[in-house]
Amino acid sequence: MAGKRKKSSGINRKSERTAAVASIAADDDSEITALNLKGGRLSDGMDSYFAKCQEKLGFVPNVLKAYAFDNAKLEAFVAMYNDLMLAPSGLSKLEREMIAVAVSSQNRCYYCLVAHGAAVRALSGDPPLGELMAMNHRAARLSKRQRAMLDFAVKLTNEPWTVEEPDREALRRVGFTDRDIWDIAAVTGFFNMSNRVASATDMRPNTVYHGQAR
Amino acid sequence: MAGKRKKSSGINRKSERTAAVASIAADDDSEITALNLKGGRLSDGMDSYFAKCQEKLGFVPNVLKAYAFDNAKLEAFVAMYNDLMLAPSGLSKLEREMIAVAVSSQNRCYYCLVAHGAAVRALSGDPPLGELMAMNHRAARLSKRQRAMLDFAVKLTNEPWTVEEPDREALRRVGFTDRDIWDIAAVTGFFNMSNRVASATDMRPNTVYHGQAR
Amino acid sequence: MAGKRKKSSGINRKSERTAAVASIAADDDSEITALNLKGGRLSDGMDSYFAKCQEKLGFVPNVLKAYAFDNAKLEAFVAMYNDLMLAPSGLSKLEREMIAVAVSSQNRCYYCLVAHGAAVRALSGDPPLGELMAMNHRAARLSKRQRAMLDFAVKLTNEPWTVEEPDREALRRVGFTDRDIWDIAAVTGFFNMSNRVASATDMRPNTVYHGQAR
Amino acid sequence: MAGKRKKSSGINRKSERTAAVASIAADDDSEITALNLKGGRLSDGMDSYFAKCQEKLGFVPNVLKAYAFDNAKLEAFVAMYNDLMLAPSGLSKLEREMIAVAVSSQNRCYYCLVAHGAAVRALSGDPPLGELMAMNHRAARLSKRQRAMLDFAVKLTNEPWTVEEPDREALRRVGFTDRDIWDIAAVTGFFNMSNRVASATDMRPNTVYHGQAR
Amino acid sequence: MAGKRKKSSGINRKSERTAAVASIAADDDSEITALNLKGGRLSDGMDSYFAKCQEKLGFVPNVLKAYAFDNAKLEAFVAMYNDLMLAPSGLSKLEREMIAVAVSSQNRCYYCLVAHGAAVRALSGDPPLGELMAMNHRAARLSKRQRAMLDFAVKLTNEPWTVEEPDREALRRVGFTDRDIWDIAAVTGFFNMSNRVASATDMRPNTVYHGQAR
Amino acid sequence: MAGKRKKSSGINRKSERTAAVASIAADDDSEITALNLKGGRLSDGMDSYFAKCQEKLGFVPNVLKAYAFDNAKLEAFVAMYNDLMLAPSGLSKLEREMIAVAVSSQNRCYYCLVAHGAAVRALSGDPPLGELMAMNHRAARLSKRQRAMLDFAVKLTNEPWTVEEPDREALRRVGFTDRDIWDIAAVTGFFNMSNRVASATDMRPNTVYHGQAR
């Protein structure tokens, strides 16, 4: 039942390279999901991506290690994630992380709430904002723009079949372009996917997230 | 409000090349989503992918045209889709399409039900099976394996926070490996994403799907 | 467990008379519900009604065969059904069938979705309309009148306790009379009944419906 | 907005005939539904049925007066109702009324809870039983048979798409025949219909019910 | 499993004192909850409170006997209850009881519906009003003030996380002060607590309530 | 709209006494709820209780300040709270706080999640445990005892009407006594009350909680 991933060659190479990783991160490594999947060989691209994570963040997010059993799946996930969350957009990076957390709250996804809650705290410099996104976005004091954005994301998460033109109009009224609406929809969709992969596999977040930006 | 996509250079090039496309497909072109997004330039890779769709299917699925406003997003979507639905897996292609439709039924996604309902009919040679997946998978006469697979997908769609080890055990008991469980989760997750992008943008399926494999 | 109805005298007489029925219809006969109910003797009226179905439709709808174990129940069902769906009304027959399918979609009733989806396709000459009613009526391009009608029917199906005067006013505003409102309510109510009888007994639709009016 | 039914010829004739009706029943007459429907002419059969109600019950149930605007609809309703609730069945009349109330409780139908709650009290001689059916059937001290019957009815009311063979088996295990299962399903279905007609039209119960069999 | 409370010294003393209690109340005594909790010694204050109940009501409400196993818990409950339901407030006692019943209806709490339904009937002199609160408050003919009050209470019961400033504004608009809003919230909250204690312990109401004020 | 509580005499006296309170706590004071309620005079008992909070915690929890507009309500709340959460019980204080957070998570109560999440972190010395209770208790690695306790509390919160003897038996099976079951029910009930008072009034937690025991 335990998702031991010791034999993952890609990851082993990783941990050799990063001998300095704190014990907390090492612990994270031992049981990332409830699935027993043998790690495959990572492409050079993914190999350096993991190295970059280690260098920049001090750890490799467990979701990446979870996908690492299959390089093609990992690459597809990373490509989509990076485009959605980091590429230029009318939504700020913080706004995209706020959507991530508000959506994950509806789906009660432990992995995503912990990892992206930390991102909201870090990007906003406002620790309670991270809690509010995870607990109840309606209780946050938000601009009309951000409230409309999150209301749309939450409705799209909970009752996608009821989203219609007036919902899109509500976004346009607070200044979002049609391209922005796509991005709101795409980020909302992405976390509705990730939440379910994480829940289905009992994915565990790196414990280092808990203390970040408190 | 209408998502006219006439200026999409990638798509225009496409439609020049495929002058023989039936008028029904041409109609499909005119209003794919409720968003007004200017098409961008497609990479050569995506350009030939569209040409291959046209050649093999006789049309380019509207979801691809919808993503074509941004080549990076299109490529990420296509890479993930093709890996999930077409790459080798312990799940047959039909089984993956059955999950697609059962999930889309929970989310009442018109686009995905029409497009993937046709796929279930075609791959199974059993038109009522496509209807059953779209209407109520519990009414289908399924093998224990397929019933367990769909029950997991539907539970993961509707209440992801309640999925736990006994749910994974139920899949193992009917013969699924941990790698298969990942694939069930990933396909379920993917359509929970696509359903929401489609619903958020009012994406319309190519009408040609309706008559396929009846 | 199988609802074999071979001994149903009424039905046996029926099938003798209609030796020319295609094998598909004969198959339909063998297992209509999950209940093992001996057919009773049909009245002359019901006998000729079955004959008329056979003559006009080429088959006897399975719901009638299911009720045929008890002539009084069959007669009551037929009387109510024919009054609601065929008698003069401010609602067109197509509109009544649209309600039937939209309601059955909420209740995920396989029998009614298949049988009445075919009716919507046939009466409208618009196959996608049948799909839209079965999948998500909100995605259909409807007149204000028909949209209001279906919103009322769906709300009355899902949360009947919340229907109040403003809901009736919304119908009057798009031109429905009080008599029309009764008919919308009565058709909605009727399929909330039929959906449950069908689901409780695992009633199976005649397979001939699947290909009709595609 | 008020459903005055003064011009209903059938009803007028009725009330002339029953000059002795208590003032409370006369009040009931004045506003039965929120729909303004002119009463039609009743057939002789319905005319004597109303007379029989008046004679036996001391009043005509408002649901009958509500249907009386159209004799064909009234006859169809009465035929189905009387067959279901009064004809021979493996279910006692009390059991059928218990289903009526438990179903109406799920749908929060004021009319049916009042009218059939009175019937449960009267038939059982146990006033709290009527309350329990209306409030929460799970809190009642019931035989296994009656508890299984009501659990089936409530599940079929709330989530008809999840009813499957194990649900029918649970009924067979406590002694119900397949014919009984039909009757449980049919009564459950019928009140899912009536609840919605009553809610859609804001049907008001005769006030006389409130004090009956307390 | 049966909540026999024979050894409860406090209660025993009570019942000695009140030898005249009708047999119905004596029966009530025998099984109040499904928990087997030994009664503790009541304080003099609680002792006289029970005596006062007996004197004024003719019986001690079972909820008090249920709490009597621990004098501190009983005193805390009584203090809060009496402050909320009997102390001066902008809400009349009837209005507070109407909230109690409407909330208990959402939570389907048999104990509270029976006990407080009787209170609504008694305080209003309008037996159907008690039924309406228990069955569906939306079907009652209420003043705008009382309807807004109950809509707030029901929303706060069912989806507390969605209550926001517009909901409070709706109360202010019909004349409630901020202090009144507190009281509506507090009564709603209190019965959301009591409903759960009663349901968790299968608390049974004194049967005497059933016939009161009919 | 802002719940300024400047005139609250009791609280003013408090803040004079506690001039050393950090500015963060002072800020908390300025807007505790969305209701404009004039503070009343506190009893000596409550006065010293506030002083004790200040001394022990370094601040007075906002919920107490919110109730302070009426000394009787404050006393009743404090008496019940302290009995439930601090008095001897078969449940440890940590277990009672775990219930508090798991219940508040179902009701998405910002105030209670922040305040009691901090308590779980502090009492357990396990910061992720606080997050797990707030996000999804099913994802926590718990003893069978604590898992059963929280499952009961969550079920009682979400569907109190479905709690029956087998639910109590499940608690007894993992070692809880009937008295413990009462305490689980009472704590669950209490937070179902507090969550609603907090949500109805938009109660804001002291910001100091956010950083505690991380």
Uncertain runs of chain A: 1-26
**End-to-end CA span of chain A:** 33 Å
The Rg value of chain A, from CA coordinates, equals: 18 Å
Describe the oligomeric state of these chains in a short phrase.
homohexamer
The percentage of residues in β strands of chain A lies in under 5%
Could you tell me the number of beta strands of chain A? 0
**Largest interface by residue count?**
A-B, 47 and 47 residues
Helix content of chain A: 55-70%
Largest sheet of chain A: none
Order of helices and strands of chain A: HHHHHHHHHHH
Number of helices of chain A: 11
Protein described:
- Six copies of one chain form a homohexamer.
- Chain A is mainly α.
- Chain A is 65% helix and 0% strand.
- Chain A has helices spanning 9-17, 23-30, 44-57, 62-67, 71-86, 93-106, 110-124, 127-135, 144-158, 165-173, 178-201.
- In chain A, helix 6 packs parallel to helix 9.
- The longest helix of chain A has 24 residues, at 178-201.
- Mean pLDDT of chain A is 89; it is low at 1-26.
- At the A-B interface, helix 5, helix 9 and helix 11 of A face helix 5, helix 9 and helix 11 of B.
